[in-house]
Specification:
The chain is built from 2 helices and 6 strands. It has about 130 residues and is an alpha+beta fold. Strands 1, 2, 3, 4, 5 and 6 form a 6-stranded antiparallel sheet that branches. The longest helix has 10 residues, at about 95-105. It is elongated. The termini are far apart. Keywords: Membrane. It comes from Panagrolaimus superbus.
C-alpha cells in the first residue's frame, strides 16, 4: 500500500554488498577423465568445513594434489571457498552435487573462488602420493 501512496516519484536506494575478499577466477585445462587433483569439503547437510563458522555451508578446497591440473595454476589454496564451477553456482549445493560438477567438467575449467578459512599449516593438507 505504501508504494501506491508514494505519489508520482519514488526514490529507491540500492546498496551493493562488497565483493568477497580474495575474489578471483582461476582457469586450468583438463583432458577427459583426467583427475583434477582437488578434494572438496563442506556443502549443505555436511559436517562443517569452516571451523570459524559452524553454520557456513560453503564448498571449500580440502586438498590439492601436488603437480595436478588444479595445482598448476598456483592460485588455489586449501581453505578457499569455491563459488562457481564454470557457470554453475555452488551456493546452496551439497558436496556430492559439487563433486559431480567437477567430474563432468572437461577442457578449460573456470573456478570462481574467494578467501574462505585459513588452515594453520597448509602443508598438512596437501596430498603427496
Amino acid at each position: 500500500m505504501a508504494l501506491k501512496n508514494s505519489g508520482k516519484h519514488l526514490v529507491l536506494t540500492i546498496r551493493h554488498e562488497p565483493q568477497p575478499k580474495g575474489l578471483q577466477e582461476v582457469y586450468f585445462s583438463r583432458r577427459p577423465n583426467q583427475p583434477i587433483g582437488l578434494n572438496i569439503c563442506g556443502g549443505i547437510h555436511s559436517p562443517p568445513a569452516n571451523m570459524n563458522d559452524l553454520t557456513d555451508e560453503g564448498i571449500f578446497i580440502e586438498k590439492i594434489e601436488k603437480d595436478s591440473v588444479a595445482d598448476e595454476s598456483g592460485k588455489l589454496r586449501i581453505g578457499m571457498r569455491i563459488l562457481e564451477i564454470n557457470d554453475d553456482s555452488l551456493l546452496g549445493c551439497k558436496q556430492i552435487e559439487a563433486a559431480n560438477l567437477f567430474r563432468k567438467a572437461d577442457g578449460t575449467i573456470r573456478l570462481l573462488v574467494c578467501d574462505g578459512f585459513n588452515t594453520i599449516d597448509e602443508s598438512v593438507s596437501i596430498f603427496y602420493p
